[in-house]
Amino acid sequence: QVQLVESGGGLVQAGDTLRLSCVASGRTFAPYAMGWFRQAPGKEREFVATIIWSDGKALYGDSVKGRFTISRDNAKSTVYLQMNSLKPEDTAVYYCAATTTPGVLRSPRSYNYWGQGTQVTVSS
Question: What percentage of the chain has pLDDT greater than the value 70?
């Protein structure tokens, strides 16, 4: 079983930058796509970004487009989320996810594997 481990969350102020990392632990992992979702208290899990592993094409949620950038390191089985110009509305637990098959990549139901989450808190 593939294990995904997120890191890089923390407490920052509005306008700051964070970079999240997600490592597929234990072995080399080459999924179809890896992505990020987030969930704030009382809200549904929200699509943030995903990247197709083979060619690096990326999709973004409307609320983060232009501010966040997703990337991957194939050799390290690692996906990153560069978050610039953070806003209080970005406060959430951020989850890394991976899927081994094509699907509706904006939907959390399309992903086979999930990390434990990392907290991002943006103060005003």
Answer: 98
